[in-house]
Amino acid sequence: xxxxxxxxxxSVTKYVVVESFDVTPADLAARAYEISQGAMIKETxxxxxxxxxxxxxxxxxxxxxxxxxxxxxxxxxxxxxxxTRRCRANLGGARPGFHGMEYEMTVIPYVxxxxxxxxxxxxxxxxxxxxPLARKALDISRLRKIIETEES
Amino acid sequence: MAKVFxxxxxxxxxxxxxxxxxxxxxxxxxxxxxxxxTAGFESTPLQITPEEPKKGLKWAAVEVPSGVRxxxxxxxxxxxxxxAAIIIDDADLAFGCMGCARxxxxxxxxxxxxxxxxxxxxxxxxxxxxxxxxAAIKRFLTGLGGxx
Lengths: 152, 148
Hints:
The complex is a heterodimer.
Chain A: E1 3-4, E2 12-18, H1 25-35, E3 40-43, E4 47-52, H2 54-65, E5 72-77, H3 88-91, H4 98-120, H5 140-151
Chain B: E1 3-7, H1 12-20, E2 24-26, H2 28-36, E3 40-41, H3 51-55, H4 66-81, E4 84-88, H5 98-113, E5 118-121, H6 127-144
Helix pairs in contact in B: 4-5
């Protein structure tokens, strides 16, 4: 085993994902470069990856979110931008973790719509969604009927 | 500001929602960051060393595959320190091999055993469900109190 010396210790990395008709990743990148004070910013197809000290990254992402709050989504990332263990430039194919994000990008328009609606409505006036725990499992008698139907 | 465990723990939407309403999301990214920023022996890509399955013994028995125990070394501490949890059931992205699938089952089991506020949801499939989804999360997180 070889020794491992970590890079960028103590830094924080965050994804800024943009799903907007009005704002592009390039717009956000320009804004982020304007206000950045030493953070590393990488523009990607879906938004930005920002690395730096926690306070600095939080300040930048808070400012970027205000550009289009209902269509900009932020999450933590473990690896810094361009890390050879994760970057697709080194691995080829999609970055591990991209497929999860790709799936959620299909859902995000509904979430954005929800955020827009909640700007004008109180959340207490909106009915609760379906509770997964309330969904009943297949009844045993129903299962028996299905088996008997299949067998006959 | 409460520490909220999210499942799927890589979820962009849940991570964003929790932070948006002033709480701290406990996601896999923070656990991975902790490992890749700690010096030790080289163990690419995630710096999961042979020590991890040993740590995982706290949450899974020794006969449980090491893949599950190694993963539990990441998620177990987060489940222990969480003060609330949001779980998305039947998430399409939360599938995988034996290690991932069994770890996911163990994670949801351990979270459900814990006496903390929990919110169970499905991903929205249309705009109407999207409104209910966001409203339910906002209600839940506001109810936790102490949001920033």
